[in-house]
C-alpha cells in the first residue's frame, strides 16, 4: 500500500504550480538578462546582443557606491536595534503574565501590518512636529519600526517552545541572570535571532516607501534605482544594481529558512 507521501500530485496541480512559479520568477530572470544587453536606451526584446561592459561601468559609478554604502549602514544599524528591542519584547510577552499583554503584542506587530505609506506619513509628521531634521538616523528609525516586528515574531515563537524548566533549573544550580541568559536561553534562541536579523536586514536593504518619507535628500540604493528608472542615463546599470539587490536580499532569506526549518527541535521543548 502506497503512502500519501509517495503518491504523485495530479497533472493539473503540477501545471498550475509551474505557471505560478514562472509568473513569479520570469520577471526576475529578465532583470538578469537586461543587465548584460548591448542596448543602452530601451528594453528591447530580444536583446540585440550581450556584453559584460555594464558590470565595469557600474563598478566605476560613485553614485552607486554612495547609495549602496548608505543602504548597508542603515540596514545594519536597523537590524541591531531590532535585535535588541525585538528580543526584549519577545521575552517579556512570552515569559511574563501581565495586564494588556496581548495588546502590547498587537502594538509591536502593527507597523508591519499597516501600509508602508501610512507608516511613512506618520513618521514624517512626527519628525516635522518635533523639528527633527531628516538624516541617516531618521531612516534608521523608520526601518527599525518594521525590522523589530520580524525579530519579535521569530524570537517569541522560539521562546514559547523553550521550556521554562530549563531556566528554573539554571537558577537552582546557582547561576545568576546573566549566566542563565548566556548558557541556557541564548543557545536556544540563537538561530531564531540570526534568522530574524537576516530577514530584517533584507527588508531594510530594499525598503522604498518608508524611506521616501524619512530620507530627505539622501538616496538609499532602492531610491537610487527608482530615480534612475524615472530619468535613465544608462538603463543596463540599473539592472546590474537590481541584480545585486536580488542576490543580497535572497541569500539572507535562504539562510534564514534553513536556520529555522528545524526550529521545533529546541532543548526542553514540550517538557
Automatic annotation (TrEMBL):
Domain ABC transmembrane type-1: start-end pairs: 68-256
SUPFAM superfamilies: MetI-like
Membrane topology summary: Multi-pass membrane protein
Top-level taxon: Bacteria
Localisation: Cell membrane
Membrane spanning residue stretches: 12-36, 70-92, 104-122, 134-152, 240-259
Pfam families reported for this sequence: BPD_transp_1
Keywords assigned: Cell membrane, Membrane, Transmembrane, Transmembrane helix, Transport
Tagged with keyword Lipid biosynthesis: no
Chief site of localization: membrane
Family: Belongs to the binding-protein-dependent transport system permease family. CysTW subfamily.
Protein name as annotated: ABC transporter permease
Source organism of the structure: Mesorhizobium retamae
Lineage, opening ranks: Bacteria, Pseudomonadati, Pseudomonadota, Alphaproteobacteria, Hyphomicrobiales
Amino acid at each position: 500500500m502506497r503512502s500519501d507521501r509517495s503518491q504523485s500530485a495530479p497533472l493539473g496541480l503540477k501545471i498550475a504550480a509551474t505557471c505560478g512559479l514562472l509568473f513569479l520568477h520570469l520577471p526576475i530572470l529578465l532583470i538578469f538578462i537586461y543587465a548584460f544587453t548591448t542596448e543602452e536606451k530601451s528594453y528591447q526584446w530580444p536583446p540585440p546582443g550581450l556584453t559584460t561592459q555594464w558590470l565595469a561601468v557600474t563598478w566605476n559609478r560613485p553614485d552607486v557606491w554612495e547609495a549602496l554604502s548608505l543602504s548597508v549602514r542603515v540596514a545594519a544599524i536597523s537590524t541591531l536595534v531590532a535585535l535588541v528591542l525585538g528580543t526584549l519584547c519577545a521575552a517579556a510577552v512570552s515569559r511574563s503574565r501581565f495586564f494588556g499583554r496581548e495588546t502590547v503584542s498587537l502594538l509591536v506587530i502593527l507597523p508591519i501590518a499597516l501600509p508602508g505609506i501610512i507608516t511613512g506619513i506618520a513618521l514624517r509628521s512626527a519628525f516635522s512636529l518635533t523639528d527633527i531634521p531628516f538624516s541617516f538616523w531618521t531612516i534608521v528609525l523608520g526601518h527599525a519600526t518594521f525590522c523589530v516586528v520580524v525579530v519579535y515574531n521569530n524570537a517569541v515563537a522560539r521562546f514559547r517552545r523553550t521550556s521554562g524548566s530549563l531556566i528554573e533549573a539554571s537558577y537552582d544550580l546557582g547561576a545568576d541572570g546573566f549566566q542563565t541568559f548566556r548558557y541556557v536561553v541564548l543557545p536556544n534562541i540563537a538561530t531564531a535571532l540570526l534568522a530574524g536579523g537576516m530577514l530584517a536586514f533584507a527588508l531594510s536593504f530594499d525598503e522604498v516607501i518608508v524611506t521616501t518619507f524619512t530620507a530627505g535628500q539622501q538616496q538609499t540604493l532602492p531610491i537610487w534605482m527608482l530615480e534612475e528608472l524615472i530619468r535613465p542615463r544608462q538603463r543596463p546599470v540599473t539592472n546590474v544594481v537590481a541584480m545585486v539587490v536580488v542576490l543580497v536580499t535572497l541569500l539572507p532569506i535562504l539562510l534564514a529558512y534553513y536556520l529555522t526549518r528545524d526550529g521545533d527541535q529546541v532543548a526542553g521543548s514540550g517538557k
